[in-house]
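Please go through the sequence line and C-alpha cell line underneath and see whether the fold suits the sequence. See right below:
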Amino acid sequence: MKNNISLLLLVLCAYTYSGCDLLESDAEPDLTWNAYDNILNPCTGFTEYLDTRNLFFVNNLGFPFNGYPQSVLLYYREFQGGFFDCQGLPWYIVPPTTIVSYRSMTNLSTSGQTTKAAKSPQAQAYTKVVRPDGSTEKYDGPIITFNDIPAGSAQTLETPITITSEGTYFNSYEADPVQILTESDESNNQQSDNFSRSSSGSLDEARPSFIIRVPSETEFSAIKTRFAIFRNGQIEVRN
C-alpha cells in the first residue's frame, strides 16, 4: 500500500508540483565558519592555506608603497602579541585606522543526503574594545546578505575593523543573525574560541583577537631591528 502511495505521488510530481514536499528528504542547510581557508597572499603571490582567525589585511594608501602591494596581509601572532607580515617584519598599528578581517562562511554538506542551498544567507560581525583604563566600546557591524550558498560552497565576509584606540580587541562573527533560515544545526553558526558569540549575544572574552599597543617615539627609537608602522593608510618602514 505504501509503495502504491509513493508511486502515485511521484506521478503527480511529474505533472504538478503538489505533493512533492511529502517526499522531500534533502537536509536543511548548515552554516558554519571556516577556521582555515585558501588565501591569495598578495605579499608572496601564492595561494596559501592559512588560519584566518588571526589573519588581517591593511589597505596601503601611501605612495611609494615601500615595496608592499596595495593590500597587505598581516598575521597576528598571539604568543608575541603583535602583527607581522609575510616576511616576518613586525608591524605597529597606530589608531585611528582600519584593518580588515577575512572570514569564510560555508554551507556544510550532510553525509548521505543532498543538502539544500542556503537561500540569501546573512552574516554579521561584532567588535568589543577594552581600553587600558578599563572602559569599553562595543559595536555591531552591518548585516550582510549573500547570494545563495550551495552545499559545500562558501561566501567570504570581509569586515572593516575600526581601530579607535589602544586596547584589547574581541571580534566575533555570526551566521544567520536574524534567524531567517531553517538549519540542520544552529550551534555552529558562531565561531569557537575568540570568535564565539553566546546565545545571549555577549562576546566571548576568554581570548582576545588582538591587542593594540603603540610604543612612544622614545620606545620606537630604542628598537634596533627593522619594523613597520601603519597609520592613516600609510606605511613607514624603519631600520
